[in-house]
């Protein structure tokens, strides 16, 4: 499954956030009896109010949300790209993730020193981006000689060479590929084989104190700094407390500090979106569940997420959109109203499809 690597400078609250994520993983593990959860992996459920409605309608015994996996990538320091600290290990681990989540410190605390002396989100973002950019430039430097040779006699390699050269220019100017490829006319698909770090989607967690969390001007400024990447604002210490509490107490604590939703829940939602994922829904007496697929997945591919036999033996999918189902009030009523469709193997799944698959075994 897809995962998001968490990176950040020392003392910004990564471990605090990650502890909250691993505790949340333990709580969710009950829903995924066959999943083994690695110690460096944190998992959060993606909040989805539709599941509660479905569980009510179908009398489902439990709710299983879609989930997002976060991997703790230690070792990002200034100079990581030239092997400082455990820089090489850092780069190898981050290469394996599908998106990069930067944790940026906003909170002030005289008891927690900052590696660069004072608190500056902008400088920290630049420090991290510089390391990732330098790593990408090294990768490019290594592949260029071979690529130049190939491009002299292979037409399809010429487009790749041009993309790589344009990427090098962009990176040299201090811009990540994620932020700048589009406007520079670079097709990221041409660069896929090189696993460049800054071509991965980025998201940002700003670790802030409670009073900073209600400072809309500050948040707007920070969001702007990282656009088009999405930003989540949270207090890692508060999140670590919230995961220790029973659900109702956690909700109460959140309300008392003027928040509607936990930072982890927001992070799950934004992470899911950043990875380019979407869900389809199933419901029955056993469970109401959100399943994860890539945008553009077909009905048999979606069936395969539930079980590979479902994909192999796929016949058709009985589909009703969540909104139509809720409006009708029950599956039978939705059928009677002609809202339940039979879709074949070429059907492209839509977000919010409630599905039952028909298959041969
Ligand atoms: P890491 O080095 O990035 O993993 O940072 P840690 O999670 O170990 O946090 C470093 C220190 O900052 C610890 O003493 C944490 O308790 C503290 N810390 C983490 N998050 C916050 C926060 O939101 N506010 C405050 N005041 N302290 C925090």
TrEMBL record:
Cofactor(s) needed for function: Mg(2+)
PROSITE patterns: G_OBG, TGS
Domain OBG-type G: 2-254
Binding site residues for ATP: 11-16
InterPro entries: ATPase_YchF/OLA1 (IPR004396), Beta-grasp_dom_sf (IPR012675), G_OBG (IPR031167), GTP-bd (IPR006073), P-loop_NTPase (IPR027417), TGS (IPR004095), TGS-like (IPR012676), TGS-like_dom_sf (IPR023192)
Classification via CDD domains: TGS_YchF_OLA1, YchF
All copies of domain TGS, residue ranges: 276-359
One CC-aspect GO term: cytoplasm
Keywords annotated in UniProt: ATP-binding, Magnesium, Metal-binding, Nucleotide-binding
GO molecular function, one term: ribosomal large subunit binding
Free-text function comment from the UniProt entry: ATPase that binds to both the 70S ribosome and the 50S ribosomal subunit in a nucleotide-independent manner.
PANTHER family per UniProt: OBG GTPASE FAMILY, OBG-TYPE G DOMAIN-CONTAINING PROTEIN
Record-stated family: Belongs to the TRAFAC class OBG-HflX-like GTPase superfamily. OBG GTPase family. YchF/OLA1 subfamily.
Record-given protein name: Ribosome-binding ATPase YchF
């Amino acid at each position: 499954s897809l995962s998001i690597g968490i990176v950040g400078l020392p003392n910004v609250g990564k471990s605090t956030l990650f502890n909250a994520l691993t505790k949340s993983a333990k709580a969710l593990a009950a829903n995924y009896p066959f999943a083994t959860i690695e110690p460096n992996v944190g998992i959060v459920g993606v909040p989805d109010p539709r599941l509660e409605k479905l569980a009510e309608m179908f009398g489902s015994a439990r709710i299983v949300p879609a989930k997002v996996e976060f991997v703790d990538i230690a070792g990002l320091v200034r100079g990581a790209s030239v092997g400082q600290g455990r820089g090489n290990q850092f780069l190898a681990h981050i290469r394996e993730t599908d998106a990069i989540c930067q944790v940026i410190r906003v909170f002030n605390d005289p008891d927690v020193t900052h590696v660069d002396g004072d608190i500056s989100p902008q400088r920290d973002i630049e420090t991290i981006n510089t390391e990732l950019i330098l790593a990408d430039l090294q990768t490019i430097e290594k592949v260029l000689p071979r690529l130049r040779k190939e491009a002299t006699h292979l037409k399809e390699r010429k487009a790749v060479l041009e993309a790589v050269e344009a990427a090098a220019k962009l990176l040299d100017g201090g811009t990540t590929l994620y932020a700048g490829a589009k406007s520079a006319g670079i097709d990221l698909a041409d660069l896929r084989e090189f696993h460049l770090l800054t071509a991965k989607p980025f998201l940002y967690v700003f670790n802030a104190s409670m009073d900073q969390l209600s400072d809309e001007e500050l948040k707007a400024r920070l969001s702007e700094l990282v656009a088009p990447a999405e930003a989540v604002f949270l207090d890692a210490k508060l999140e670590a407390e919230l995961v220790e509490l029973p659900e109702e107490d956690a909700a109460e604590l959140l309300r008392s500090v003027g928040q509607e939703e936990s930072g982890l829940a927001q992070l799950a939602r934004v992470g899911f979106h950043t990875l380019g994922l979407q869900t389809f829904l199933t419901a029955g007496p056993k469970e109401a569940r959100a399943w994860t697929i890539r945008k553009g997945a077909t009905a048999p591919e979606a069936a395969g997420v539930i079980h590979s036999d479902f994909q192999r033996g796929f016949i058709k999918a009985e589909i009703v959109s969540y909104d139509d189902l809720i409006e009708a009030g029950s599956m039978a009523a939705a059928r009677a109203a002609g809202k339940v469709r039979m879709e074949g193997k070429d059907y492209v799944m839509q977000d919010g499809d409630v599905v039952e698959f028909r298959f041969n075994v």
